[in-house]
């Protein structure tokens, strides 16, 4: 004899009004109303009655994700309180759980507004910026064998006029020309130094230690001196 099919209404009624959660080993208690308060979120989907959430050995509903900042999400769903600490980490979790109201509120905070509206908008206008960051890291790691440091040459060309000087500038460079990584041009107000600050910030966010210094070229009476080149140094130990 087959069991009757469980309808969404019956599945919803099977949930206790108070829900015990295990988020990556962090334990939380909340209510169904709170967890369903943002209908488009993953939490609302998890407890919509059409899915059967996983449970741990003690019967708590289990979410296989780091729960270090899950409490901030719950607090927002309960009271719309926006966290003031760990903004970037909470924003990442809000994106994962698709809590759109919290995402919007966090992106209006000074910590994220400057990053998203200022820096990221600038970097979106720098051709191949993300790809160049990966190239820099790949070259540095390849040159790290039995070495304390890896040094890579960067060429920064902010404007189209600078691009027109590239061939002359690169021909005057004494370093290995094939390993030079070039950034630019871009149509935005930030300077070459601003671009280099972004490069340093994004590489260090990956756990590397780097320094950037201007590459000083030997001056000669007949040749023009170019200030497009910088030395990016990775320190391994």
Automatic annotation (TrEMBL):
Annotated InterPro entries: BTB/POZ_dom, KCTD7/14_C, SKP1/BTB/POZ_sf, T1-type_BTB
A GO BP entry: protein homooligomerization
Chain ranges of the BTB domain: 17-114
SMART domains, per database record: BTB
Name assigned to this protein: Potassium channel tetramerization domain containing 14
Source species of the chain: Acanthochromis polyacanthus
